[in-house]
Amino acid sequence: MERSAQGFAGTGIPEGHGGSAVVPGVPRAAERERGAAGSAGNASAPGAVRGEHTHGEVPLPRPRPVVQRASVRGQILDALRTALVAGDLTPGEVYSAPVLGERFGVSATPVREAMQQLALEGAVEVVPNRGFRVVVRGARELAELAEVRALIEVPVMLRLARTLPAARWADLRPLAEDTVRAAASGCRATYAEADRAFHRAVLALSGNEQLVGVAEDLHRRSQWPLVGGPASRGRADLVADAAEHTALLEALTAGDLDAVQALVREHFTTAG
């Protein structure tokens, strides 16, 4: 059954029924036409501006529309990811690009492009002539993601706990506190963002950008809701999860390797 996106919250995309959104800094068509007409009388060189000498340079091409489309697509992708984590996109349901585009006030094209990216990430699947179905996830997939994350992150954190001074870990305390505040809000999407920011900052201390990127993708996938929606993990679960960040930071600061390993594995097992 095709559903609309009414009820999406916190997406940051203005509502409306127009075609494509306007990106600041990109001139509208009428303004470009007036600019072209104003420079047409200067025969010294194409595209020359009065009072300037082009010395025969080839004029730079005007910004292509793809710049605007990519910007809108990125905003829509962020909004759809937020809706997915918040449970506004229900597992098993099919959503069409035109309906979602109308909700976001853009054309169907950037929505379709964003959905295709989510399909590459495994969040949705293409349903020919209908739209995109949100993938139904099970507990086994979540457990597999937790196992892979542990294989990647535990060795890195243990190495960092052995080598980094306590002062470096103190710099991450505000991020741990952000997760506590986000959990207290009860908003799953807000907490998911703060949660990723904390883990990303910890792994970034390794200096391995490739590792950070892989871990971020796995982390994002582990945050997609199971069948049953966000109610399956309420405020109390988020608060408990955030408390583990604080405990992990304390163990890393103290260089307690046994506690670090136990906390990370437990954290990945209960998270999701």
Architecture blueprint of SSEs:
Layout: H1 29-39, H2 65-86, E1 94-95, H3 97-104, H4 108-121, E2 124-127, E3 131-134, H5 139-163, H6 166-170, H7 173-185, H8 188-204, H9 209-222, H10 235-254, H11 257-270
Antiparallel strand pairs: 1-3, 2-3
Keywords:
272 residues, mainly alpha, three-stranded antiparallel beta sheet, 11 helices, 3 strands, 4% strand
Protein described:
The chain is mainly alpha-helical. It is built from 11 helices and 3 strands; from the N terminus they run H-H-E-H-H-E-E-H-H-H-H-H-H-H. It has a 3-stranded antiparallel β-sheet. Helix 8 (188-204) packs parallel to helix 10. The chain is elongated. Mean pLDDT is 79; it is low at 14-52 and 63-67.
Termini, distance in Å? 27 Å
The SSE order reads: HHEHHEEHHHHHHH
How big is the Rg? 24 Å
The parts where pLDDT drops under 50 for at least 5 residues are 14-52, 63-67
Count of extended strands? 3
Beta content: under 5%
Largest sheet: 3 strands, antiparallel
Shape: elongated
> Mean pLDDT score, rounded?
79
What's the helical proportion of residues?
55-70%
* Tally of DSSP helical segments: 11
Q: In order across it, which strands form the biggest sheet?
A: 1-3-2
How would you classify the helix and strand content by structural class?
mainly alpha
